Known about the structure:
The complex is a heterodimer of chains A (372) and B (286). Chain A is of the alpha+beta class. Chain A contains eight helices and 20 strands. A six-stranded mixed beta sheet of chain A has the order 6-7-8-3-9-10, with helices on both faces. Chain A has a five-stranded antiparallel beta sheet with strand order 13-12-11-14-20. Chain A has a five-stranded antiparallel beta sheet with strand order 15-19-16-17-18, with no helix packed on it. In chain A, a hairpin with a 2-residue loop joins strand 9 and strand 10. In chain A, helix 2 crosses helix 3 (110-123) and helix 2 (95-106) packs parallel to helix 4. Chain A is elongated, with a radius of gyration of 25 Å. The relative contact order of chain A is 0.11. By secondary structure, chain B is mainly alpha-helical. Chain B folds into two domains: 1-35, no CATH class; 51-284, MetI-like fold (Orthogonal Bundle), CATH 1.10.3720.10. Chain B has a two-stranded antiparallel sheet. Chain B is globular and about 75 Å long. The A-B interface holds A 53, 55, 74-77, 80-82, 84-86, 88, 90-93, 101-102, 105-106, 149-150, 153 and B 178, 180-181, 183-191, 194, 198-199, 202-203. Adenosine-5'-triphosphate binds next to helix 1 of chain A. Chain B: It is found in: Cell membrane. Chain B: Residues 65-272 form the ABC transmembrane type-1 domain. Chain B: Keywords: Cell membrane, Membrane, Transmembrane, Transmembrane helix, Transport. Chain B: The chain crosses the membrane at residues 7-26, 69-90, 102-124, 152-171, 207-229, 249-273.
Amino acid sequence: MSETPDLECRDISKSFDDFKAVNDVSFSVPQGTFFSILGPSGCGKTTLLRMIAGFQEPSSGDLLIKGKSVLDVPPNKRPVSMVFQHLALFPMMNIGANVGFGLRQRGVNKTDITKQVERVLERVGLGGVAERPVSSLSGGQKQRVAIARCMVLEPDVLLLDEPLGALDLKLREHMKIELKQLQSEFNTTFVYITHDQSEALVMSDQIAVMNQGVFEQVGTAKELYYEPDTAFVAGFVGEANRFTAKVKGSAGGSVEMVTSDGQTLHGLDARRSLSVGDSVDIFVRPEAVRLSRNQADVAAMGNTGQGKVANILFNGANSQLILRDQTTGAELNVALPQTGEFRDLARDDVIHFGWEQQQTRVYLADGEQTDV
Amino acid sequence: MSDRSKLTFWLLLAPLLIWLLTLIILPHVGMFLVSLREKVGVREYETGFANYAVFFNEPLYWNTFARTAYMSIAATLLTLLIGFPIAYYIAKLTRGRSKTTLFLMCLIPFWVSELVRTFGWMILLRETGVFSNLLQYVGLASGPVEMLYNDAAIMTGLVYTSMLFMVVPLVTTLDSLDDSLIEAGYDLGASGFAILREIVIPHAMPGIVSGCIVVFMLSLGNYLTPILLGGKDSLWFTGLIYSQFITRFNWELGSAFGFLLLGLSSLIVFVGLKLSRQSLGKTMAQ
Ligand SMILES: Nc1ncnc2c1ncn2[C@@H]1O[C@H](COP(=O)(O)OP(=O)(O)OP(=O)(O)O)[C@@H](O)[C@H]1O
Ligand SMILES: [Mg+2]
């Protein structure tokens, strides 16, 4: 692997009139990485990607590809390729002409084009379709043609703008795995944007979580999931029970907080930055909560309680339980363990629950971040 | 189909059928029969192709016929050449209000009658007209310049009259071209020209062809513009037909000419469609 990253953004910003769609974003993507940008709709993902592709000019900041600034390079000269949200395959050409389009623009001779097109089509598992019209392909096949059309040019960076958005759920699940495989096979740097966290978590080496034009956190899927830096990341990546609370007491790194429902929760304050009276946002993952029929099992945990089953949302391995706390009436989502132990659990049953202090993630409510 | 729905079907179709029959088929059948009558004496007629023979034996008719054809083709191509950038600008480079405004501006010339429009050009182009005076004023010409009564004047008039009929179908097809296709083209390294040739024009082809057919038909059948801007010697085929019918009272020859013009326009449209590999159905459907 080379030292210089394939793609580097330095304080990139983009404003439309007074509105800052992308605000001082900096990141770098090493060669061969699958880099995802994950964020809710309208957070500026497409704008950022279009700046990298060259369709939009950054208001400020610098953009480097393989260490060289490309701000002055027009999109048709940039060593990046883009897979568009709706693929943008050319309907007036057959598949071979679509894939060969970029090579034709480079003036490669005809026989070489035919050879290279066939080779890349075979690599994406579509050998022998070059003569067919684009409309004869299924959604997933079109996807692969769109990728082949870019990959045949051997770009330094491949940009993908929610390419799975138009596919149905089943196919999306399948394409996720396939995309990741294609990426490692071509060993090209992918920058992939999506608002679907499972796409990002499954495929990426690195994920940037974006919100309102800024990167909230950049890290691996595991880091984002287990150690979210900000309240936004904790709420956006994975599922979480969310509470707003006030700090009531702190002792030796452990804090005691009272939620608006009157529930008392315990968490860790690793940075010792919380003081009594602070408003905080608290996140607890449903799968961090332990269930048990006898109290002794959960008694040693930092947060315990007794809840009545308000609802069971059965969804195979992703089944969830909605518990209502016996004392405060607060609702809590809990992942239902699939060990069979709770198979006969029914509505209105009462059960004990508990979770460790370090599973309670606490963030100062005014947006300033604090780690546990 | 039940009897009732059959009745509805025919009733709904009736206006179209009546229109076709009375306004298109009947006059043409009549004209064709007239064109086959040969005058052998006073009120004595025989059936034959003599009228058509007159056309083929007289070089003046022949030349006018050919001239009308190639001038119309030239006018069509010129309209396309000027209309395409305008349509592209309206469809792709403007949004919202300014788009509507520009579109309406193409329509404005059609709020006045063709006659008035053509007179407008005459005021601009004649010897004592605006352009002539302007050239003298600036000092580019020493005396009055006559810009009327030549082929260029006819061409200007034809292009001007036809512009809307080219721009409208072009804007419609170009509007339906997804911007991301153009961006994808750039992204894959194409130059602006390559995108025009490989993506924009193939996509706009149905619009180009339907615009061209309409403009060509309009030019070929135009009577007023060639006569007024081209003068007495404009040598436009519709002018010949007119003079056979009205000046010479030779309805037989006039009808034959009319049929020849119909054949010519059909032939050229057919060749045009074949060359552009479009079908009439596909073109009209857009
Ligand atoms: N040309 C433009 N002019 C003005 N505002 C724009 C323009 N393009 C984008 N925006 C605004 O910038 C913000 C970010 O848009 P962007 O398309 O980057 O969002 P996104 O993250 O890609 O969202 P989605 O997931 O819905 O595609 C939006 O609020 C949008 O309204
Ligand atoms: Mg987007």
